[in-house]
Design goal:
It is elongated and about 95 Å long. By secondary structure, the chain is an alpha+beta fold. It folds into three domains: 92 residues, wza like fold, CATH 3.30.1950; 87 residues, Outer membrane lipoprotein wza fold like (Roll), CATH 3.10.560.10; 81 residues, Outer membrane lipoprotein wza fold like (Roll). The chain contains five helices and 16 strands. 16% of the residues lie in helices and 28% in strands.
């Protein structure tokens, strides 16, 4: 039996034909979307993005992966210089790839696409807020909106918000290449609208907490009190509900740390007129210990348990889109 001539088609030829067919169909048919959102404006390549490099007509040089810590296509073999992609537009990266591959390929055509943006750096808002939260930002958003998203500012806020922008995390045009930044915003300016900066992915926003003083011993409500202004000894004790039945007003100690040394000041509340010069003003991290009946005066600072901070990766994630 006689057969006609055998046609051999290589994988590269199949790929080239598929590309031509696909582009021809796109030219004459409308594009339909199945559960996909409309593509937004062209964006640069961010750290964390999954990038696809398609060399038209060749399987051997196709690549898919992420950027390395320096911003280059991690592991992309160009037989020459590495390809820098962080915060650059895909078409600009494609031109660099074509120039690099032109040493070994004839008129290479590269198509660079971001295929996954879900792993971009998140913004974190923590500190003196009701619910510290991670935010995945997919549209422009300002600080006040994110603060509202955490449930608002708590009473122990010190009055200032710090914004730390890590090295090359956001691709903002107003950020110096590779340079971390830190800025401060007063809560009063934020609430009045005088200042409301835009927040980007990777930003670490902290609503600063006021330094505490601690009340322990024979006090009705042992607690820490945020020191947001002038606070005297009698005011602090009154805010904690006063002394218990076992509490001794003649045995009140303030432990105050000065560097590596600790000073102890002892007072008799019965001899202090509230608001008078004899009413001591408390300082950050003072420990006020109310003695109890039958107890001995303490000679060393008591140990105060401070709750540990939750790791950022354990915070709830909210998507801004």
């Amino acid at each position: 039996m006689t057969f006609g001539p055998v046609l051999t088609i290589t994988r590269s030829a199949i790929k080239a034909l598929a590309f031509v067919a696909a582009t021809s169909v796109v030219a004459i048919l409308p594009v339909y979307s199945f559960g996909q959102t409309e593509p937004g404006p062209q964006e640069p390549i961010f750290p964390g993005d999954v990038v696809d490099v398609d060399i038209v007509g060749s399987f051997d040089f196709d690549w898919r992966g992420r950027l390395d810590p320096e911003g280059f296509l991690a592991g992309f073999n160009t037989y020459g210089d590495a390809i820098f992609a962080r915060c650059r537009m895909p078409e600009d990266v494609a031109r660099d790839i074509e120039r690099a591959l032109s040493k070994i390929l004839r008129e290479p055509k590269a198509v660079v696409t971001v295929v996954d943006r879900s792993n971009r750096a998140v913004a974190v808002v923590d500190g003196a807020v009701r619910s510290p939260t991670r935010f995945q930002i997919k549209r422009p958003v300002k600080l006040r909106e994110l603060i509202v998203g955490t449930g608002g500012i708590t009473d122990d806020a010190a009055g200032r918000i710090s914004i730390f922008r890590p090295k090359a995390a956001s691709c903002r045009p107003d950020t110096e290449e590779g340079a971390p930044e830190i800025a401060f915003v007063s809560i009063a300016d934020l609430m009045s609208g005088r200042s409301d900066p835009e927040i980007a992915g990777g930003d670490l926003v902290s609503v600063e907490r006021a330094s505490p003083v601690y009340l322990i011993g024979g006090i009705a409500n042992p607690r820490s009190i945020p020191l947001t202004g002038k606070l005297t000894l009698t005011q602090a004790i009154a805010s904690a509900g006063g002394l218990t039945k076992e509490g001794r007003q003649d045995d009140v100690s303030i432990f105050r740390r000065n560097g590596s040394e600790v000073s102890i000041m002892r007072f008799d509340l019965g001899r202090i007129v509230p608001g008078s010069p004899e009413d001591p003003v408390l300082q950050s991290f003072d420990i006020v210990d109310i003695g109890v009946k039958g107890g001995l005066p303490k000679r060393v600072p008591p140990v105060v348990n401070v709750s540990s901070r939750q790791g950022n990766d354990q915070l709830p994630l909210s998507i801004i889109e």
